[in-house]
Amino acid sequence: MLLRYRGGEGMLAWAFHRISGVAIWAFVVLHVIDIYLVGGNPDAYNELLAIYASPIGRVLETLLGAALLYHALNGLRIIVIDFWPPLTRYHVWLWRLNWLLFLAIGVPVAWIILKPIFGL
Amino acid sequence: MSLYTRSGRARPRGGGWELAVWYLMRLTGVGLFVLAITHFLIVHVIYDPSQQTADWIAEVRWSSLFWRAFDWTLLMLVLFHSFMGVRTVVADYTRGGVRSAILMALYLTAIILFVLGTLVVMTLPVVPNGPGNPA
């Protein structure tokens, strides 16, 4: 079902939206538990924090940020088209605009998250 | 208004709970666009994960009512939006008893996270005169 839906940019937008959404959901489950530990077991939280701040943690956080930014931008595109259907005609153009914003915002943020790996 | 969109779920016909969820997904989505992105930028751009120890959260991050209220609002929006989103995914790929069992586990998880998250944000002691909360 994931790759047979409608086709073209609309299908890709839908598949990425679904994959990024499930990924963010999985992190939310983990994240509420780790923040609970700030009160419940601060030492366990601090140990987990060391993983978040490690190189592997930073790569995963960059991927999380990418999922969040894509999902947020594409979600806004969905809402705009839902409430203003004539814009459906320009959905591919809106999808390209999404990727432009994704790169313009995402690349600098990714650099800030990843640069400590390189000692910067 | 058209029922057909290019990548969103079609607006449910009729009214009731399913239509309410459809609107609420969009409403919470707009809220999360602001709150979740702001949260991510605070945690990863303004501060670095390496700073954010349990003591730092108590003394700086959660030293004001505003940021506790901000984070609790974010928690409410993200629990509704993410669990209702996964519910749609589960409903697309499962049926019958399997679907019911997975949805039960899903709702139970959401309730547990609601309790854990609310508990910590509301009960973590405020550190008076901490670095982020000068006298």
Give structural attributes.
heterodimer; A: 120 residues; mainly alpha; 3 helical TM bundles of succinate and fumarate reductases; B: mainly alpha; 4 helices; disordered N terminus
Topology (SSEs and partners):
The complex is a heterodimer of chains A (120) and B (135).
Chain A lengths: L7 H33 L1 H11 L2 H29 L7 H24 L6
Helix pairs in contact in A: 1-2, 1-3, 3-4
Chain B lengths: L15 H31 L7 H8 L3 H29 L2 H28 L12
Helix pairs in contact in B: 1-3, 3-4
Q: How confident overall, as mean pLDDT of chain B?
A: 90
Please state the CA-atom Rg of chain A, rounded to the nearest Å.
18 Å
Q: Which CATH architecture of chain A would you pick? A: Up-down Bundle
The rough form of chain B would be described as: elongated
Largest sheet of chain A: none
Low-confidence stretches of chain A: none
The number of helices of chain B is 4
Overview of this structure, please?
The complex is a heterodimer of chains A (120) and B (135). Chain A is mainly α. Chain A has one domain: Up-down Bundle (3 helical TM bundles of succinate and fumarate reductases), CATH 1.20.1300. Chain A contains four helices and no strands. Chain B is mainly α. Chain B has a single domain (16-123), classed as 3 helical TM bundles of succinate and fumarate reductases. Chain B is 71% helix and 0% strand. Chain B contains four helices and no strands. Chain B has helices at 16-46, 54-61, 65-93, 96-123. In chain B, helix 1 (16-46) crosses helix 3 and helix 3 packs antiparallel against helix 4 (96-123). Chain B is elongated, with a radius of gyration of 19 Å. Chain B starts with 15 loop residues before the first helix and ends in a 12-residue tail after the last helix. The interface between A and B is large, with 51 and 47 residues.
